[in-house]
Design goal:
Layout: H1 2-32, H2 35-65, H3 74-88, H4 95-115
Helix pairs in contact: 1-2, 1-4, 2-3, 2-4, 3-4
Length: about 120
C-alpha cells in the first residue's frame, strides 16, 4: 500500500514541480539570467517533461490498447533524459532550480524504483 502511494506521489509531483519551475522561469529568470543559462535551464525543463511523458505514455497505451510490449530502449532513454535534465537544471537559480532539481530527483527515484521491482 505505501509503495503504491509513494509511486503515485512521485508520478504526480514531478509535473507539478515542473510547472512551478517553468512559471518561476518565465516570471523572473528569463530576463535575469544570461542567454546560455536561460536556454540550458529551459532545455532542462523540456528534458524532464519529455522523460515524464515517455514514462506515462506507455502505461496509458498498455492499459488502453492492450499493447503487450514496450521498446527495449525506452527505460534507458527515460533515465538518460531525467539525469541530463536534472544536471542541466543547475544552470537555473533560486526557486526554479530547487523545483526542477526536485522534479528530476522524483523522476530518477521513480524510474529506479519501477525498474528494480
Amino acid at each position: 500500500m505505501i509503495g503504491t502511494s509513494l509511486l503515485l506521489l512521485l508520478l504526480l509531483a514531478a509535473p507539478a514541480l515542473l510547472v512551478l519551475a517553468y512559471r518561476e522561469w518565465t516570471r523572473r529568470l528569463r530576463r535575469d539570467l544570461s542567454g546560455w543559462r536561460s536556454n540550458v535551464g529551459l532545455l532542462s525543463l523540456v528534458a524532464l517533461l519529455l522523460s515524464w511523458i515517455s514514462f506515462v505514455t506507455p502505461i496509458v497505451l498498455l492499459g488502453a490498447f492492450k499493447i503487450q510490449r514496450m521498446p527495449e530502449i525506452l527505460p534507458a532513454l527515460q533515465v538518460l533524459l531525467a539525469i541530463s535534465g536534472t544536471l542541466s537544471a543547475l544552470a537555473l537559480k533560486g526557486v526554479s532550480r530547487i523545483e526542477s532539481l526536485g522534479a528530476g530527483l522524483c523522476l530518477i527515484f521513480l524510474f529506479f524504483t519501477v525498474l528494480n521491482t
